[in-house]
């Protein structure tokens, strides 16, 4: 449950322009689609995917770290990690089970005999879009448990794109179609309040000291 008085206290510290920007961005945020990346060795690719999520309004990025212990490249992400929720998983199975339990269908973005072209993809269902490496693609476990397959139409000799490029193309296409549809894709009222609180905290310098003072004065 969001402490509305605490939220109001923090937002009172922010400028009106900052608060208006938060509201405008949150109006275009969605969890209808979520993105998952699997064991990306080059973390600048994961960071670039995160940046695409932020730019095109995807609120959550799921990162499977089964083999490589890497950290987000902040220079590539360019601050996107402050605005996108990062869920990390230590196994493919855990990630798949979690996303399925949230009601997402699992979509593998890879050429496949039963694949679907991007423009034909049914955007009405909440979907978790999985991306693998350019070299190895997605793991067998994800391919076996996928509910569907999605690919980008290509007309050249090269058969694959860098993961960050593929993700940017797909995310932009699907989110644009989503916003032009009648689907209820927005964040819930409570999710918006949660993000307002988190983003306010991310925007205020010395937030720990301010929090300590606030709760010392207001919590009996």
UniProtKB/TrEMBL annotation:
<dbReference type="InterPro" id="IPR029028">
    <property type="entry name" value="Alpha/beta_knot_MTases"/>
</dbReference>
<dbReference type="InterPro" id="IPR033671">
    <property type="entry name" value="TrmH"/>
</dbReference>
<keyword id="KW-0819">tRNA processing</keyword>
<keyword id="KW-0489">Methyltransferase</keyword>
<dbReference type="InterPro" id="IPR001537">
    <property type="entry name" value="SpoU_MeTrfase"/>
</dbReference>
<dbReference type="GO" id="GO:0000049">
    <property type="term" value="F:tRNA binding"/>
</dbReference>
<keyword id="KW-0808">Transferase</keyword>
<feature type="binding site">
    <location>
        <position position="109"/>
    </location>
    <ligand>
        <name>S-adenosyl-L-methionine</name>
    </ligand>
</feature>
<dbReference type="InterPro" id="IPR029026">
    <property type="entry name" value="tRNA_m1G_MTases_N"/>
</dbReference>
<comment type="similarity">
    <text>Belongs to the class IV-like SAM-binding methyltransferase superfamily. RNA methyltransferase TrmH family.</text>
</comment>
<feature type="binding site">
    <location>
        <position position="152"/>
    </location>
    <ligand>
        <name>S-adenosyl-L-methionine</name>
    </ligand>
</feature>
<feature type="binding site">
    <location>
        <position position="161"/>
    </location>
    <ligand>
        <name>S-adenosyl-L-methionine</name>
    </ligand>
</feature>
<comment type="function">
    <text>Catalyzes the 2'-O methylation of guanosine at position 18 in tRNA.</text>
</comment>
<keyword id="KW-0949">S-adenosyl-L-methionine</keyword>
<protein>
    <recommendedName>
        <fullName>tRNA (guanosine(18)-2'-O)-methyltransferase</fullName>
        <ecNumber>2.1.1.34</ecNumber>
    </recommendedName>
</protein>
<keyword id="KW-0694">RNA-binding</keyword>
<dbReference type="GO" id="GO:0141100">
    <property type="term" value="F:tRNA (guanine(18)-2'-O)-methyltransferase activity"/>
</dbReference>
<feature type="domain" description="tRNA/rRNA methyltransferase SpoU type">
    <location>
        <begin position="33"/>
        <end position="171"/>
    </location>
</feature>
<dbReference type="Pfam" id="PF00588">
    <property type="entry name" value="SpoU_methylase"/>
</dbReference>
<dbReference type="GO" id="GO:0002938">
    <property type="term" value="P:tRNA guanine ribose methylation"/>
</dbReference>
<keyword id="KW-0820">tRNA-binding</keyword>
């Amino acid at each position: 449950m969001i402490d509305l008085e605490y939220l109001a206290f923090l937002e009172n510290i922010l400028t009106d322009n900052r608060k208006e920007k938060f509201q405008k961005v949150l109006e275009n945020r969605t969890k209808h689609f979520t993105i998952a990346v699997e064991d990306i060795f080059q973390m600048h690719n994961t960071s670039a995917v995160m940046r695409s999520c932020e730019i095109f309004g995807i609120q959550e990025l799921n990162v499977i770290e089964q083999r490589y212990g890497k950290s987000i490249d902040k220079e590539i992400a360019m601050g996107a990690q402050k605005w996108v929720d990062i869920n990390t998983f230590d196994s493919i199975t855990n990630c798949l089970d979690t996303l399925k339990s949230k009601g997402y269908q699992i979509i593998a973005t890879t050429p496949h005999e039963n694949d679907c072209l991007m423009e034909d993809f049914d955007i009405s269902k909440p979907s978790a879009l999985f991306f693998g490496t350019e070299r190895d693609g997605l793991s067998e476990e994800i391919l076996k448990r996928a509910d569907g397959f999605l690919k980008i139409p290509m007309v050249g000799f090269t058969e694959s794109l860098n993961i960050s490029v593929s993700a940017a193309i797909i995310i932009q296409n699907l989110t644009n179609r989503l916003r032009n549809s009648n689907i209820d894709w927005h964040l819930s009222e409570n999710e918006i309040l949660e993000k307002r609180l988190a983003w306010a905290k991310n925007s205020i310098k010395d937030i720990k000291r301010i929090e300590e003072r606030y709760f010392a004065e207001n919590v009996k």
